[in-house]
Design a protein that fits this description.
It is a single chain. With about 150 residues, the protein is mainly alpha-helical. The protein has two domains: about 90 residues, Multidrug-efflux Transporter Regulator, Chain: A, Domain 2 (Orthogonal Bundle); about 55 residues, no CATH class. Strands 1-3-2 form a three-stranded antiparallel sheet.
């Protein structure tokens, strides 16, 4: 089995688009070598880093946080289970906060989803005259773990 994958093979295996792979390489999250013709080739082991990136994005980490976490992994060897556990341990509180926020959202769905709309006649988060507009866009009443800043979309 060849240890080098083309960008299309890496995209297919990882679930990321080729443009995302190029972006992650540019940002230093993953590495690729080049053929004599300049085509990218990824070590099969980069799929682990990409899986880590996908998991970290689902947890809500920013690309900066992901880059910092990946910098803690050994460059000279394939990361071990202990390496991954050490890094992912720091996600526990973030996940607990998000789970709590989702539970609060679930428990309030019958009356309000925290959107800040003006449409409900009886809403505990009433927003008369759109007074929360200066707090930003989106569902500003959602608990913070569910309302991250609208930056770093990739």
């Amino acid at each position: 089995m060849e240890d080098l994958l083309t960008i299309s093979e890496t995209a297919e295996r990882s679930g990321f688009s080729a443009s995302a792979l190029r972006y992650y390489e540019r940002e230093g999250l993953i590495d690729a070598s080049r053929t004599e013709g300049g085509q990218r080739r990824f070590l099969r082991s980069e799929l682990r880093r990409l899986a880590f990136i996908a998991a970290a994005r689902h947890v809500g980490l920013t690309l900066g946080e992901i880059k910092e976490a990946l910098s803690l992994l050994p460059a000279e060897r394939t990361p071990t289970k202990a390496d991954w556990m050490r890094i992912s341990r720091s996600w526990r509180q973030r996940l607990d906060d998000e789970i709590g926020a989702l539970e609060r959202l679930r428990n309030g769905l019958d009356s309000c989803i925290g959107c800040g709309c003006l449409s409900l006649q009886r809403c505990r988060l009433s927003n008369p005259n759109d007074i929360v507009a200066d707090r930003g866009s989106g569902a500003v009443f959602l608990p913070e773990p569910l309302h991250p800043p609208a930056v770093e979309r990739q």
